[in-house]
Design goal:
The protein is mainly β. The chain is 3% helix and 35% strand. The strands form 23 sheets. The protein has a ten-stranded mixed sheet. It has a six-stranded mixed sheet with strand order 19-20-22-24-26-28, with no helix packed on it. The longest helix has 14 residues, at 24-37.
Length: 1106
């Protein structure tokens, strides 16, 4: 994802949600609204803040928000003590499957659920701010929702309104209305689903309604109550039941009035207080009551005269404060999870005698200066052992103070069976010894701890998710008796180079998702007992070079070996019945499905062949295989999974079998054009900043869907063509310049966010008449997304015609009859299809199917009626011409072809008459035109198809003669045997051509590619731009490595290669003329040449002069 330029206090538009630049109070209103929707505000009330108070420590704006999948928000870190240097901030998401965040604070919703976005200063890592973000999809039936069921505000205080829309309604106009104008006013954001509500200066109660209309005209509505409160309550805002709702004062020391029964959520948020005194009457303190304040001291009234009644403490009550010591009232019974989380200055806590059992797990997370947790001796549920919190029976270690024994060692109490969630989170101790009784460690129990080695007991059993995550100093691990490695267990333990799986114990059976992401092990050997490895288990390990699969593995999750760019060796136990390595790639066999799971990306091979019978190319299978130029896929392949070829930047040659039904991994390659058959059911292209194909052709589908998301490196695609049977089309981010839709289209959604000039240069065709269903759907999609509907055209099947003198229709093609040496003109006419970008090329096809490009793609000229385009091509057929192929394409990339069979009257020049007393000269030999000849070290008539080299001249260029040619005699002169004739100096034979040094054959094999034959050496390299002796025959190769045929100029001399690729020698007929190639060197001869007992004269062009 590319970073967007952002402005402080602004949302970024992605999908349906967009928010303009807002003030801090309005931002906090959004934050409170989301909290309300999550049940964090009493009675689901949406309460606006009472004053603008600068924050002392780092905090986030908005404090929290809600998104629908695909939407995004730019978070801003704020502080009033010093400017925030954004380059010094580190951002993180607690769950990247729900939220993704970049290094600028740009957060994108990925999947439904709730996750936390956090930010901290690198220079002051204890200064951390975090907020929850909820991702929630709105159903099509509901259509529209708001973030709160009711809203409470104070007169004159603006509030931000956020309408969440169903996917089909994103971008639709939202209408806002108040039941009474006396409540205030609403200012909608132009073109977006957001608005600002500014209450009037008069208190009142009413409703607010948000409405959106579907394309079908159905009205969707949501209504909430609005309560505007009078601003006449002084510093303390309380309800009728004595609950303190908010504090508006600016005092550093605050005495909460006696009689207050409870302190509401975020009642003191963003205040400047340093000390607070809480009266004995307070029975409950709700979630985040003092969150984010500068609070340093809390004094509870709790003495014999006035014992505290406090019984319940909410979640994160004192988070992000500066409180150092905390002594809780003796009356306290209930402490919610996370009660003391993120108290960065806290050093000690004292718990009273009534704190109930089964609490406090995870309550001390992110307290980096905590050194001791004390418990009243009378508490029956908990005990402190040297400042470490255990259950009374010592079976559970609940919390280890992070700053205790920094750099030292600790031994867990004997008899402890469980270490609870987050117990050692961020602990600075470097060594921990476990008792033999230990059986379980909880979620994130050692996350971020400073341990350097980890040895689990032989009787150990299970670990929670992320148990040893981000332990950056951890070097070695002994898994002991673990039966499974949990999700993300050792994720991002970058120094971890040695993992002992304890195959001797035979207990380990599973390795969870992301378990070893980002470690630094070079070799991984999976024990024979492991049957399951989940997604991404060993991904993003740049040091990994070899991976061995044990005997029992039967399931390997997607991307389990992803982004391991140095992985060179894959191996499998011979006893494994599910996996096999074939030609260096790992395959999984499951019933009738054979999947290529992983190709070793560090392989130096330029070509890979997927094994016959393979039905699926797995997710990320060829990821970052940068040496690959060609991949050969087998017919019968049905699925190309997500990111299958991502990062194969040099892959330029890959034909997609017509059997493919699902294709999601075809971006991030060097492919220019991708063509799929007519069986497509699901096709996705999601470049997201990577390179994508320029031309996409889908011949058809079976109720097929197409989805495109993101933008492509190097600009948008040129074209996309979809055949009949494709029905649903979604473009997010960008559109191709030319789009062809089928008559079967039932759903079309076009990219809305493209620049106006790109929209104006977008042409859309529908293979259906005006007024039909597909036409109507396409028109509505263009208008809805802001495209010029006048650029919608009817797509008609493309046509191709060939005409000219001597050309007549012949069956499905055409026939041309000419005399040798007589130029022939071919008139090419193209119509239908896309009216722009028409090009044509001409290819000579030999009798053995050898192809020679006569004219490359050339722009055609539009005819006067502008419905057809023409191109004229003139050539002189040779005796060896048998067929032309005419190819035509337009801007859609669709190619039409027509064949023209060529008949040339073969008239050979007369042979010179030999002297009866002399041995006859060798009969001239015409190029044998072997049918399907393949270069061979033994013979020149192997029946395999001949190569299709790059263009070669039909005859060698004719240089200007150095003198006027002397008319040739009717018969070449025959010298007397005793004395050969001495030619006149002007006709003397020229110097013999310089013999080119021809490299001798290396061990290798012939390989057929899309442009012809090439020769691959045993080390994977191949000859380029040179001549090579193979099997005693000389072959030449062009600069792309393909075998050349016909005339080739090398080191100043001309050579001729037969269609089999073999360098010719002696007499050759080409283009209606005879040439003589010097035996031995094969170079074309000029001047007088002796062949046997006869002399022949050849022009400077090499042609025999009769």
């Amino acid at each position: 994802m590319s970073h967007r330029t952002h402005v402080a206090l602004s949302f970024a538009l992605v999908g349906a949600l967009a928010v303009g630049a807002l003030s801090a109070p309005v931002a906090l209103a959004v934050e409170t609204a989301v909290a309300a929707h999550q049940g964090n505000v009493q009675s689901s009330a949406f309460v606006s803040p009472s004053r603008d108070v600068p924050t002392r420590h780092l905090r986030l704006w908005p404090g929290s928000t809600a998104l629908v999948p695909g939407q995004a928000v730019m978070f801003e870190a704020l502080s009033d003590t010093s400017p925030v240097d954004h380059s010094e901030l580190t951002w993180a998401s607690s769950d990247t499957s729900i939220l993704a965040v970049d290094d600028k604070g740009f957060v994108t919703a990925i999947g439904e659920g709730e996750a936390t976005i956090s930010v901290k200063r690198r220079a002051e890592p204890t200064d951390v701010a975090s907020v929850p973000v909820r991702v929630h999809a709105v159903s099509e039936e509901a259509g529209i929702e708001l973030s709160a069921s009711s809203m409470v505000s104070t007169v004159g205080r603006p509030m931000f309104l956020n309408a969440l829309l169903a996917p089909s309604l994103r971008g639709s106009r939202v209408e806002w209305a108040l039941s009474s104008a006396s409540l205030g006013s609403i200012a909608p954001d132009e073109g977006e689903s957001t608005a600002i509500f500014t209450p009037s200066m008069q208190a009142g109660v009413g409703t607010l309604t948000a409405t959106v209309t579907t394309p079908a005209g159905v009205v969707k509505t949501v209504t909430v109550t609005v309560d505007v409160l009078a601003d006449d309550t002084g510093d303390f805002v309380m309800d009728d039941s004595g609950v303190l709702i908010a504090y508006r004062g600016a005092d550093a020391e605050v005495d909460i009035p006696a009689g207050v029964s409870a302190i509401d959520s975020r009642a003191f948020s963003d205040t400047t207080l340093r000390t607070v005194r809480i009266p004995a009457s307070v029975r409950r303190i709700d979630d985040e009551a003092f969150y984010g304040t500068g609070l340093e001291e809390i004094i509870f009234q709790d003495d014999e005269a006035a014992p505290s009644e406090l019984a319940e403490l909410g979640s994160r009550v004192f988070s992000n404060t500066n409180v150092q010591t905390l002594t809780l009232p003796r009356s306290l019974v209930t402490i919610k999870r996370d009660a003391f989380v993120d108290m960065s200055k806290l050093t000690s806590v004292h718990l009273g005698p009534k704190v109930a059992a089964d609490q406090l797990v995870g309550s001390f997370a992110n307290t980096p200066e905590l050194t001791r947790i004390q418990v009243d001796a009378g508490n029956p549920n908990y005990e402190s052992l040297d400042g470490v919190l255990y259950t009374r029976d010592h079976t559970h270690l609940i919390a280890y103070p992070a700053a205790k024994n920094a750099g030292g060692a600790y031994t867990v109490a004997s008899g402890t069976t469980d270490i609870d969630d987050l117990a050692f989170l961020g602990a600075q101790v470097e060594s921990v010894t476990f008792p033999d009784a230990l059986r379980r460690v909880g979620d994130q129990s050692f996350e971020g701890a400073a341990l350097t080695t980890l040895t689990l007991p032989d009787g150990f059993e299970t670990m929670g998710a992320s148990a040893f995550w981000q332990m950056t100093a951890l070097v070695s691990v002994d898994l002991g008796g673990a039966t499974g490695v949990s999700t993300n267990a050792f994720r991002y333990d970058a120094a971890l180079s040695e993992v002992t799986f304890r195959p001797d114990l035979g207990r380990l059976t599973s390795i969870g998702e992301g378990a070893f992401v980002g470690i630094s092990a070079t070799t991984i050997t999976i024990p024979d007992t492991v049957s399951t490895i989940a997604e991404e288990a060993f991904s993003k390990n740049p040091a990994l070079t070899s991976f061995h699969v044990g005997a029992s593995l039967n399931s390997l999750g997607d991307y389990a070996l992803g982004e391991n760019d140095n992985l060179a060796t894959l191996s499998v136990s011979p006893a494994n019945a599910s996996f096999v390595v074939d030609d260096g790639a790992l395959y999984h066999n499951d019933s009738s499905v054979r999947t290529l799971v992983r190709y070793a990306p560090a392989s130096s091979d330029s070509e890979a062949t997927v094994a016959a019978g393979t039905t699926t190319v797995g997710a990320g299978a060829f990821e970052n295989a940068t040496s690959l130029r060609r991949v050969i896929l087998p017919e019968g392949l049905t699925t190309i999974s997500d990111e299958a070829f991502d990062g194969c930047a040099n892959l330029v040659d890959m034909a997609i079998p017509t059997s493919v039904e699902v294709a999601r991994g075809l971006t991030g390659t060097g492919l220019d054009t991708i063509e799929l058959g007519a069986q497509v059911r699901d096709l996705s292209l999601t470049p997201r900043g990577a390179r994508s194909v320029r031309h996409l052709i889908v011949r058809g589908g079976i109720d097929g869907t197409f989805y495109s998301e993101g933008t492509s490196e190097g600009g948008r695609p040129e074209s996309a063509f979809f055949g009949e049977g494709m029905t649903s089309f979604t473009f997010w981010g960008e559109m191709p310049r030319v789009l062809v839709l089928p008559a079967t289209a039932t759903k079309v959604a076009l990219a809305e966010g493209m620049a106006p000039e790109l929209k104006a240069d977008t042409s859309i065709y529908v293979a259906s008449a005006e007024g039909t269903s597909a036409w109507t759907i396409a028109t509505a999609a263009m208008e809805s997304a802001g495209y010029d509907a006048s650029r919608l055209s009817v797509y008609e099947a493309p046509t191709l015609g060939v005409s000219g003198a001597g050309i007549a229709e012949a069956g499905a093609g055409y026939a041309l009859t000419v005399s040798p040496g007589v130029p022939a003109t071919v008139e090419i006419t193209a119509g239908g299809g896309v009216a722009t970008g028409r090009e044509a090329r001409v290819v000579r096809v030999g009798a053995n199917t050898t192809e020679t490009l006569l004219q490359d793609w050339t722009a055609m000229t539009d005819a006067a009626e502008e419905k057809a385009s023409t191109l004229t091509y003139t050539f002189t057929p040779s005796l060896t011409d048998s067929e032309l192929r005419i190819d035509v394409r337009d801007a859609s990339g669709i190619q039409q072809s027509a064949t023209v069979s060529v008949t040339v009257n073969r008239v050979l020049p007369p042979l010179p008459l030999p002297d009866p007393n002399d041995d006859p000269a060798p009969a001239p030999v015409e190029d044998p035109d072997h049918a399907g000849a393949k270069p061979s070290p033994i013979t020149d008539d192997d029946p395999k198809p001949a190569p299709a080299p790059g263009p070669a001249p039909s005859q060698p260029p004719v240089p200007a003669p150095s003198q006027t040619p002397v008319p040739a005699p009717s018969q070449p002169p025959v010298p007397a045997p005793s004395q050969p004739p001495v030619p006149a100096p002007s006709q003397a034979p020229g110097p013999a051509p310089i013999q080119t040094s021809i490299p001798q054959q290396q061990t290798g094999e012939w390989v057929w590619g899309v442009r012809g034959w090439w020769y691959r050496y045993a080390d994977g390299s191949y000859p380029v731009g040179t001549a090579v002796t193979i099997g005693g025959r000389v072959y030449r190769f062009d600069v792309a490595g393909y075998m050349r045929v016909g005339w080739v100029r090398d080191n100043g001399a001309w050579y001729y290669h037969l269609r089999s690729g073999v360098q010719a020698s002696g007499w050759v007929s080409s283009g209606g003329s005879w040439y003589y190639l010097t035996p031995g060197s094969g170079a074309m001869s000029t001047g007088w040449v002796s062949d046997g007992w006869a002399w022949y004269r050849f022009a400077d062009s090499g042609q025999w002069v009769e």
